[in-house]
């Protein structure tokens, strides 16, 4: 549940145990991560030693969490303004890590009727791709009861631009939490997340990392060939392109480009694909 100062806090059915790792881990260059499933020996009271770590299904670096089931991507309808470019950037990073994305559109209390129509159109476009999309307002407590079930029986990370209301949402869904929000940090005149360690906190029947994930929006680790797989609506058409390994850019008889022409693939998604493609292509090699 938490790693702090050489201790690992392990939750079992009955209690939380303060455990140390063993020298074994140092030799194997393996150290327990928050999110790990471990076996441990109880020493006395609530102290113990971790003896083995079960195989991980994945591991994130920032925040350092293992076995992440899904990423809740929060985008605000307004302030900061709704951006499909930024949303797609998060989606690609999450997809590239083989993690299931869920989209929450926040601050719905701030939108006018006109803006609501635009947001709804985009919501439907993402749903058509197959993504789950929910809208909400923490401030006006709109549709908050729909959010908690998404966390059930899963380990989640929450992702999204600064100021979209990630901390506000978690605090609202679990009033026992007091994750700092922008309001508080501004009034205290100090930065957030300065000396933070990662901890899994309870939301309903699930667990969430209390530190946002995917804060770096660079496609550092993503190869050009892997990009279209991060767009499910493109991945689904790949086998219909004339050329195997079609990149959907200049190739003839490309099923993706054909689908864009008839609006079966949303043109804005394809434009973002091309933009990210350029970005990865222009990436400076690092040594
Ligand atoms: N109107 C409105 N304001 C909200 C809502 N949710 C959050 N806010 C406000 O938006 C600001 C930012 O909220 P935070 O929860 O700190 O945002 P965050 O995403 O955690 O930001 P970082 O920690 O910087 O990543 C705060 O002033 C909140 O009060 C909402 O549903 N409606
Ligand atoms: Zn193609």
Automatic annotation (TrEMBL):
Q: Name the domain of life.
A: Bacteria
Q: What is its main location?
A: cytoplasm
Q: Which residues bind GTP?
A: 106-109, 160-168
What cofactor is needed? Answer: Zn(2+)
Tell me which EC number(s) this protein carries: 3.6.1.-
Where does the EngC GTPase domain lie?
Answer: 66-215
Keyword rRNA-binding belongs to the record: yes
Fill in the subunit field for this protein: Monomer. Associates with 30S ribosomal subunit, binds 16S rRNA.
Gene encoding this chain?
rsgA
Entry keyword set: Cytoplasm, GTP-binding, Hydrolase, Metal-binding, Nucleotide-binding, Ribosome biogenesis, RNA-binding, rRNA-binding, Zinc
Q: Name one GO cellular component term.
A: cytoplasm
Q: Which GO molecular-function terms appear in the entry?
A: GTP binding; GTPase activity; metal ion binding; rRNA binding
What does the UniProt record say this protein does? One of several proteins that assist in the late maturation steps of the functional core of the 30S ribosomal subunit. Helps release RbfA from mature subunits. May play a role in the assembly of ribosomal proteins into the subunit. Circularly permuted GTPase that catalyzes slow GTP hydrolysis, GTPase activity is stimulated by the 30S ribosomal subunit.
Leading EC class: hydrolase
In this chain, Zn(2+) is annotated as bound at 241, 246, 248, 254
Name of protein: Small ribosomal subunit biogenesis GTPase RsgA
Compartment(s)? Cytoplasm
Family of the protein in this entry? Belongs to the TRAFAC class YlqF/YawG GTPase family. RsgA subfamily.
| Domain CP-type G residue range list | 57-217
> Which InterPro entries does this entry report, sorted A to Z?
G_CP_dom, NA-bd_OB-fold, P-loop_NTPase, Ribosome_biogen_GTPase_RsgA, RsgA_GTPase_dom, RsgA_N
What detail does the entry give on cofactor binding? Binds 1 zinc ion per subunit.
Q: Which GO BP terms apply?
A: ribosomal small subunit biogenesis
């Amino acid at each position: 549940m938490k790693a702090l100062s050489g201790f690992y806090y392990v939750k079992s059915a009955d209690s939380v145990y303060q455990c140390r790792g063993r020298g074994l881990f140092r030799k194997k260059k393996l150290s327990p991560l928050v999110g790990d499933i471990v076996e441990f020996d109880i020493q006395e009271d609530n102290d113990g030693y971790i003896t083995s770590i079960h195989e991980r299904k994945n591991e994130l670096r920032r925040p350092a969490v293992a076995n992440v089931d899904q990423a809740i991507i929060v985008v605000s309808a307004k302030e900061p303004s709704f951006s499909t470019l930024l949303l797609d950037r998060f989606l690609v990073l999450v997809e590239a890590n083989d993690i299931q994305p869920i989209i929450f559109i926040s601050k719905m209390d701030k939108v006018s009727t006109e803006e609501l129509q635009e947001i709804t159109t985009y919501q439907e476009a993402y749903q058509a791709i197959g993504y789950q999309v929910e809208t909400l307002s923490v401030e006006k407590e709109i549709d908050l009861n729909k959010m908690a079930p998404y966390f059930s029986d899963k380990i989640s990370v929450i992702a999204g631009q600064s100021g979209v209301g990630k901390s506000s949402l978690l605090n609202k869904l679990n009033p026992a939490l007091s994750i700092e929000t922008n309001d508080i940090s501004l009034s205290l005149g100090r930065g957030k997340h300065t000396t933070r360690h990662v901890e899994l906190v309870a939301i309903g029947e699930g667990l969430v990392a209390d530190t946002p994930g995917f804060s770096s929006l660079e496609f550092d680790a993503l190869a050009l060939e892997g990009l279209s797989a991060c767009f499910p609506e493109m991945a689904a058409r790949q086998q219909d392109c004339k050329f195997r390994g079609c990149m959907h850019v200049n190739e003839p008889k490309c099923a993706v480009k054909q689908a864009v022409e008839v609006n079966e693939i949303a043109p804005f998604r394809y434009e973002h694909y091309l933009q990210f493609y350029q970005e990865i292509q222009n990436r400076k090699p690092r040594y």
